[in-house]
Amino acid sequence: MPELLQKSYKKQLVTWIGKPCHFRLLYKISRDGCSAPTFHQKCDGQGATVTVLYNTNKTIYGGYLSQSWDSDGEYIDDSDAFLFRLQYNGSSNPLKFPVIQTDNAGYGNNGYGPTFGGGHDIQTFSGTISNSGRCFSLNGYFGLGSSYNLNGQNEQTITNNSLQVTDLEVYRVIDGPGKKIPDKPWREHDAWTTETVQAQKKSLLAYKPLTETNVGAANILLIGQIGAGKSSFFNSVNSIFRGKISSKACSGSFEHSVTTMYRQYKVKDFSNGKFLNFRLCDTRGFEEEFALDAQEISFILDGNIPDRYQFNPLVPFTPDTPGYIKDPNLKDKIHCVAFVIDGSTVDVMSDKVQKQMKDLQVRMNHRGLPQVVFLTKLDKICPDVHIDVKNTFTSIAVCDAVEKVADVMGLPRAHVLPVKNYESETRLKTTVDILLMEALQRCLDFADDYMDEQLDKMTAEGKNVRAED
Ligand SMILES: Nc1nc2c(ncn2[C@@H]2O[C@H](COP(=O)(O)OP(=O)(O)OP(=O)(O)O)[C@@H](O)[C@H]2O)c(=O)[nH]1
Ligand SMILES: [Mg+2]
């Protein structure tokens, strides 16, 4: 689950703390549960921390302690402590409130969540609080002004009078600047402008596989875990060329794969009614306990499985299955594979899932098939990208996820393509379009290389080459 604290607020906190430092998330009530013992278990003895509350009035406030939390029922003496407000009513509005009664800066009690000041200035919660729908109604209280100097502010202007929070996070404050990618992007990219969108569209509309291959449309296979965003990727690309958000392929979150039918989707450009010369082949997703049938995947790669084939996990596809394409040509085969991976799960990808991907890769490598990764849900990896997709190539979290996936998949970093699918948007966005079309264009370039290579092979052998397991 991603951190909520955006980069600009982190920078503000570093300025207030007054020395180079960075943050590591220790505790988050929406992830770990809102319970005083859990807070202490995760945060006691960790050194300096910052506690941040996000309330339903779009106000962000909290407190910093340079000393560790503990559970001994005593006050924590800390002359560097301060309370703060970062955001008020949805707008950035940072203010710092220094400690004045330093021996009462914090209060460590196993029955209490983060508590600041004698009195207490902020008592976040006690015991355990359950999540009531979209927020947590914390049972704490404010005694602001007891141990901290409010500089003329009050409970209303600091907290917007609410302990109803969507989240509460505690970060460990670590000395040193941390891994920093300055303002220079970690990957070169085109300008985030409508001109770029137009140029990308033009290039995709003009795309055509080499005439000698006799292939009318390049086939890109979308493959990956359930819920990774395969169908959403097709829907997103389709939306771009439709000129508005559309959701032709079923997408959503269910226990098992939402997609149960093999579909070779074509994309139509609504401005001229023509189809683009590629197909996005959407498969069902695999699960930790429910691998894809390896032979079935081979049939897909080799072009034996027809469009609209209904997957049946109990009865795998065989040459006797109705619709089996007996002598597929290059035009029926897959020309590039895109592993669709949910960026927000990269850190917790199980060994089983990694093994499934490796097994699939063996089959692809065997056929010399180019592979890329579409790293989806960037907005869930990094709060800055959630705010603006333009931050993708300066986001450390995205850069880390790209490196990690490249490592796991044994692919060059340049083959890992960050994307954000359309999911909650109601209108198209230049930035989202640019990432999607960049990823697609890369796939088509790789598909062309593959077809070119196959053509050479066929010419050399004087026949239609079919890969075998
Ligand atoms: N926030 C966010 N959500 C996304 C993104 N891409 C997909 N989703 C959501 O993730 C859920 C699953 O997406 P699908 O496109 O159905 O995933 P799939 O890979 O086709 O899943 P199966 O067909 O079940 O294997 C949906 O609720 C999408 O709205 C993304 O980039 N960001
Ligand atoms: Mg799907």
Provide the fold topology.
Blueprint: H1 7-17, E1 21-28, H2 29-32, E2 34-35, H3 36-43, E3 49-55, E4 60-65, E5 72-76, E6 82-88, E7 91-98, E8 106-109, E9 115-116, E10 122-123, E11 128-129, E12 131-132, E13 135-137, E14 141-142, H4 155-159, E15 164-175, H5 194-206, E16 218-224, H6 230-242, E17 261-269, E18 274-282, H7 294-302, E19 309-310, E20 336-342, H8 351-366, E21 371-376, H9 378-381, H10 383-387, H11 396-409, E22 416-418, H12 430-461
Parallel strand pairs: 16-18, 16-20, 20-21, 21-22
Antiparallel strand pairs: 1-15, 2-11, 3-4, 3-15, 4-6, 5-8, 6-7, 9-10, 10-14, 12-13, 13-15, 17-18, 17-19
The structure holds guanosine-5'-triphosphate and magnesium ion (MG).
- The CATH first-level class of the largest domain comes to Alpha Beta
Can you summarize the main beta sheet?
8 strands, antiparallel
Number of beta-strand segments: 22
CATH superfamily of the largest domain: P-loop containing nucleotide triphosphate hydrolases
CATH topology of the largest domain: Rossmann fold
What count of domains describes the coordinates?
A: 2
Number of helices: 12
Summarize the structure.
The protein has helices at 7-17, 29-32, 36-43, 155-159, 194-206, 230-242, 294-302, 351-366, 378-381, 383-387, 396-409, 430-461; strands spanning 21-28, 34-35, 49-55, 60-65, 72-76, 82-88, 91-98, 106-109, 115-116, 122-123, 128-129, 131-132, 135-137, 141-142, 164-175, 218-224, 261-269, 274-282, 309-310, 336-342, 371-376, 416-418. It is of the alpha+beta class and 469 residues long.
